[in-house]
Design goal:
Bound molecules: zinc ion
Distance between the termini: 6 Å
Number of strands: 16
Structural class: alpha/beta
Low-confidence stretches: none
CATH superfamily of the largest domain: Zn peptidases
Radius of gyration: 25 Å
Strand order of the largest sheet: 1-2-6-3-7-15
Shape: elongated
CATH class of the largest domain: Alpha Beta
Helix content: 25-40%
Mean pLDDT: 96
Amino acid sequence: MSEDLDKRLSAEVEARRDNLVALCADLIRIPTLNPPGLNYREICDFLAARLERAGFAVDLIRAAAAPADSDRHPRWNLVARHGGAGPGDCVHFNAHHDVVEVGHGWSVDPFGGVVKDGRVYGRGACDMKGGLAAAVIAAEAFITACPGYRGAIEISATADEESGGYGGVAYLAEQGWFAPERVQHVIIPEPLNKDRICLGHRGVWWAEVETKGRIAHGSMPFLGDSAIRHMGAVLEEMEATLYPLLASKHTAMPVVPEGARQSTLNINAIHGGEPEQEPGYTGLPAPCVADRCRIVLDRRFLIEEDIAEVKAEVTAMMERVKARRPAFDYEIRDLFEVQPTMTERDAPVVRTVARAIEKVLAKAPEFVVSPGTYDQKHIDRIGKLHNCIAYGPGILDLAHQPDEWVGIDDMVDSAKVMALTLAELLAR
Ligand SMILES: [Zn+2]
């Protein structure tokens, strides 16, 4: 690829700077809150009109019968495809269009699309309407500069990433939209910073662990069996043996932040005994021995670990407690699991985006892995497409925070990186 083309692409993106800001702000002004899943059709219609004007063929796909899909809150997705002048690879940009709740502490209107001091503010600004806008601008700039390119460009805007992606990318992958014969390269413009390439994520296992007891009068606890005391023993065993074991497991995955380069376990919730009463209840609690106690485990595991092993560690820990406590009984229920995934460093999309970052930003990219998961899991597992990364503008730490913003220069720079990537993959 000639330096001349790089310059032209950068100029085409630069010429669209105001348009990029306006597009990002317009997307923020459509409040696609999830849950429950508001305005999904509206944002898909808005993008469809825009992309059809740019020559894309657009499909709107409802994830019918997916979790949370209903006539009141249908799970709408958009896939837009622009075909080149001849056969070649397809480069697909996938952005989720849903955003999380607003929360407290905002100094600007979270759905106002406020532009000030070189930033666009709003819920979803960095996660990830800024990345979606950058991908659209990159594609439009590339098509203008290289009308005779070969292959295809796809842009998808998908539902429900923030709640697992089952009404979005998972559904599309099941329907074959990410089949390797129709899509060869996937870039997910999540806010990982414009100079970092995210190769994948750690695995997840959520489980509910319950200890069982027997209810009795609180004044005669010896007539019952306290599930809470049993759980206390479980937590002690966890501190004594499980946490040290997890801390000893390190990964070769370049996870950021560094604290996540080992196995981790969070106890998301604990509850035992009488249910909590409604706020405003003014009575006293009743005296009972707790007959059950539950915790929710959030275990994040490494690519070097096997999920069966991860589960077996917890069962073994429960068995150690059981051996010491007569009448101890427990149950472990699986809630959710995701396998870890990591794209190879020398995969075509990784190498191409890395070179584009070097050209646009004059620095070598950093390769990272996310501590939590995102939609790459579905593209990898269901779509069987492994040539996939996350790359996009915005600072990850700002996601889901009050006064979320995305930098305008960052959006422009990452749009240039995306446009150069398209040129290298489709216009060589
Ligand atoms: Zn996101």
